[in-house]
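Thread: quick sanity check before group meeting

JM: Hey all, I'm pulling together slides for Thursday and realized we never actually wrote out the predicted structure for the chain we discussed last week. Dropping the sequence here so it's in one place. If anyone has concerns about the input, flag it before I start.
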Amino acid sequence: MEENNQDKILEDIYSWLEDEVKKLTEEFDENFRNPNIVLSGKTGVGKSTLINAVFGHPLAEAGEGKPVSQALKEYNLPGVSVNLFDTKGIELDPEEREKSRKSIVSEIEKRATSSKTEEHMHVMWYCISNESKRIEDIEIEWIKEFSKYLKVIIVLTQTLDSDNKFQIEVEKEFPNLKVCRVLAEERALFGNMKIPAFGLENLIVETVNLLPEATKRAFTAAQKIKVEEKVDSAKKLVQERLNRYKNLAHFADGLPLGADMLGKGVVYLYIAKEIMTVMGIQVNNNFFKFAKNTQPLLRSIALPFVISEGGKVAGKVLAKKGGEEVGKKVTAFVVQLLGKTAGKGNIILAPAVGLIFGAYNRRITEKIANTFIEVCAELLRNELDYQNLSEEEIMDILSKNMGDRMHGVQEEIELLADDENEV
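JM (edit): ok, ran it. Output follows.
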């Protein structure tokens, strides 16, 4: 019964905030467009290995692929915000090969004329085995043709030595294209000798540089090679969105007594959802469903600042006995959420919590957001198979680590809370 009441409270609050959340989500989506990456090259050059290394899933996980044209298939990897297109035909007889080339070029050219950026083919990774030390005339023709219609990066896969003569040869042939040498996965030679994977970070950087702005954030989220790129992307997002978070917080001020507190909590949950999304951590796209699973995270943000009645000089009284019926229910829920018992109907909290769930404070919001970014980065660095964790397992890890981090920044945030000029 108690759980049902909590769900009802969350549903009421979500209905009040739904329009504002919808606007925020639409704005976010405008700059989180899936990039379209075309893979090309001979069979056996390591395209699937490359995709597995960069995105954490081999092409086989995407099934047979959806035919887009005679020689082009689209693949959508689970939980990866990138659309992959694989070409075929270079190994066919000359007549069939020409048909394939025309089919691929026709599709790329058609998409290039679209007014919608998300329909364009954005970047091609043309893969050539570095071990072969050879690029065929037909490949040179294909690359030159493709580069008329989209950005092309030549990826020299299966690179096992430091000799860059082949790279120099390719660069002379294509002086205006980027050439990246990579070894997508560690290669064992004999005995205990191994060659570690390398070159993937450079490929990520060069790809980001060529992608349209609206797709860079989604690609950065999808790749699993450079955590620092994800951190930078999340911090940039927070700076862009601070005023929009402020608007959502001010909207929550108009909610009934008690509901305004949890409405302010929604601001932090929404920030967390956006940060997790741009860092490529599994998250439910439906905000309401996401919020239902993130109560521990909200507790981890607030609990370090909760003080007992009769303790330090009281901060702001956030909830008072009485009020509208919904306000009573939400007040009771917030009490439970924070793990406190309300004496005489009041919740006495430290000044920082008064600002966290009361008036909007930009600097506090920014500090909490950046702290959460650090927590997410820690997950990405320490949990190498985080893609295989359930949303509940991920939230358990993030909530615990966020609570630990919030204790560490408690004094700093309390000082920000005392600065009335920042309200």
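AS: nice. Residues 335 and 341 are 6 Å apart (CA to CA). The mean pLDDT is 81.
JM: adding both to the slides.
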